[in-house]
Amino acid sequence: MNDLSKTAFLHRPDLHVATEGAFKGWRTWIRDSFETHVGPFWHRMDENGRVHCAFRVEKKHLNGMRNVHGGCFMAFADYCLFAIASAELEGPGVTVAFSCEFLDAAREGELVECIGEVTRAGGSLIFLRGMLRAGERSLFTFSGTIKRVKRKAAAAVAAAEQ
Questions:
Q1: Helix or strand or coil: residue 45?
Q2: Which helix (H) or strand (E) holds 80?
Q3: Which residues, listed in sequence order, are joined to residue 134 by a DSSP beta bridge?
Q4: 54-69 pLDDT, tens digit each
Q5: Under 8 Å CB-to-CB from 119, ≥6 apart: which residues?
Q6: DSSP-assigned letter for residue 5
Q7: For residues 88 and 97, what is the distance between their CA atoms, to the nearest angstrom?
Q8: β-strand 27-29 against 125-134: which pairing, if any?
Q9: 46: which of 38, 82, 114, 157 lies 20 to 30 Å off by Cα?
């Protein structure tokens, strides 16, 4: 099942679907300059309707010890929050809380994957948790809260940026 038509993905004009390479058929968002610079980060929905996220570790993701920089893990996990929450989010949102634990390092060339879940979705807040892995190794756990943003407020922010 790769049908995302009832989710926030439908309302994302910045959605890009890879047409070639290792992530062919996976999706990413191209509007976020920081994520584009740090990533690329990718997401897809499996046949059971679960969102999977991934990125391949490149040299630019490494710290001075030649392991993935903690900030890269955190940026990827924040990306994952929004991909995982897409079915519930149905529009814009912002991260209002984020917590994480570093468990192990990842190295250049490894595929870092994330599986997570929405633990509760209310009227204005969505609570989530997830784990990053490289193969069988657990690398990083996280939880976060997304606040839904009213479209009126988002439009005002966009207008102010112009």
A1: strand
A2: helix 70-89
A3: 137
A4: 999 999 999 999 999 9
A5: 127, 128, 129, 143
A6: T
A7: 17
A8: unpaired
A9: 38
In terms of Cα–Cα distance, which of 80, 64, 71, 82 is closest to 132?
A: 80
Q: Which of 20, 139, 128 is nearest to 84 (CA)?
A: 128
104-152 pLDDT tens trace: 999 999 999 999 999 999 989 999 999 999 999 999 999 999 999 886 6
Residue type, 102: F
Going by the DSSP 8-state scheme, the letter that residue 4 receives in this structure is: -
Q: Which of 16-20, 78-82, 113-117, 139-143 has the lowest mean pLDDT?
A: 16-20
Asked if residue 140 lies in contact with residue 101, where contact means CB atoms within 8 angstroms, the answer is yes
Which strands form 111-121's sheet, in the order they lie side by side? 15-17, 27-29, 42-45, 51-56, 111-121, 125-134, 137-148, 93-102
Whose tokens are 């996280």? That residue is 142
Beta strands in 46-92 (DSSP E): 51-56
CA atoms within 13 A on the CB side of 158: 9
Model pTM greater than 0.90?
no
